[in-house]
Amino acid sequence: MFHITGMVSIMHTSIRSGATMVVMPRWDRDLAGRLISRWKVTHWTNIPTMVIDLLASPHFASYNLSSLVYIGGGGAAMPQAVAQRLQEQFGLRYIEGYGLTETAAPSHSNPPDAPKQQCLGIPFMGTDARVVDPDTLQEMPVGEAGEIIMHGPEVFNGYWKRPDATAAAFIEIDGKRFFRSGDLGRVDEDGYFFLTDRLKRMINASGFKVWPAEVEALMYRHPAIQEACVISTPDTYRGESVKAVLVLRSTHKDLVTEQGIVDWCRENMAVYKVPRVVQFVDALPKSGAGKVMWRTLQEAEAQ
Predict the structure, then answer these.
(1) Tens digits of per-residue pLDDT, 84-102?
(2) CB 122 within 8 A of CB 107
(3) To bridge 166 with a disulfide, which of 14, 68, 121, 158 should be the other Cys (CB 3.0-4.6 Å)?
(4) Which residues contact 33 (CB under 8 A, 6 or more apart)?
(5) Cα dist. 24→2, 44, 247 in Å?
């Protein structure tokens, strides 16, 4: 509950509306499954990694999630394969939102009655969000990727005692002060925003731009993969290559190999995006908010 989503969007909102809260001391997928079943929980806001973890539980079939009428969250991208399973199995459309600490949590959210998969949603009320070229700062046409910027009442004033960082984080367009998110995305003809990846996460493989989030989303379609984190690995020829750090489902651990994963990827994505290195791990490092700490894996790889 130290997090804006946990404290404001869930705890404060529930108290304000007189709702019942089912509180866990820490995340435990099987305890969550039992509590949802027992208390007939109707609304669950979460980090997508929690949903992925619960669906991977060997006891999942014994839990009753039919009481849920709303499920959504943010903090990480919800893989389309997982969102599709929620819709087909439970009739639930995962409602994604988007924001940063610098925007006091959400700057965008999907309308609950008209969400789109793998989508950040539309800007919050009073928020002017745009997609611009990271270098020229010119606004990009509909459908073309660029850096997401936003102006609105939720945007912070600046970093504490870091004037240089503050100056680098803002630009002025049309007389408005816009915050540079550092995230790459695009906006469609309906005004919905879609995330490509973090600007600093891009992998440059022989001049080809590889966005880790895109490769991760594709890999979640593999039946053996429970969690995936894609990082860059040094390559003397290509400069950088793609590496996938994977957590396998307990039911598939003895059924797949690293090479088998690579072969599957070659059949399901462009060749330059295919991981050259695959590493199996028991768990991915996560923050207190449940986000996968890709920087930790990237720094370890660099060392």
Answers:
(1) 999 999 999 999 999 888 9
(2) no
(3) 158
(4) 54, 57, 59, 60, 62, 63, 65
(5) 14, 13, 24
Tokens (6 digits) for 113: 């009655």
Contact 238, 272 (CB under 8 A): no
For residue 60, give the DSSP letter: G
Task: Say how far apart CA 98 and CA 119 lie, in whole Å.
Answer: 9
Any idea what DSSP says for residue 155?
A: S
124 CB-near residues (< 8 Å, 6+ apart):
106, 107, 108, 109, 152, 154
Q: Which of 254, 210, 255, 250 is nearest to 230 (CA)?
A: 210
What the block records as the tokens of 211 is: 């966005």
CA quadruple 196, 201, 202, 203: dihedral sign: negative
Give the distance between the most distant pair of CA atoms in the chain.
Answer: 61
| Cβ pair 286, 53 in contact under 8 A | no
194-245 confidence digits (pLDDT tens) = 988 777 788 888 778 888 988 999 999 999 999 999 999 988 777 889 999 9
Report yes or no: 155 and 123 within 8 Å, Cβ to Cβ: no
- Specify the residue for token string 């304000």: 16
Return d(Cα 58, Cα 275) in angstroms, integer.
28
Residue type, 145: A
Containing H/E element for 218? helix 212-219
Are 171 and 147 spatial neighbours (Cβ–Cβ below 8 Å)? no
CB atoms within 10 A of CB 28: 13
- Whether 267 and 221 have beta carbons less than 8 Å apart is answered as no
- Say if residues 231 and 296 touch (Cβ distance below 8 Å): no
In the three-class reduction of DSSP (H, G, I as helix; E, B as strand; rest coil), residue 190 is classed as coil
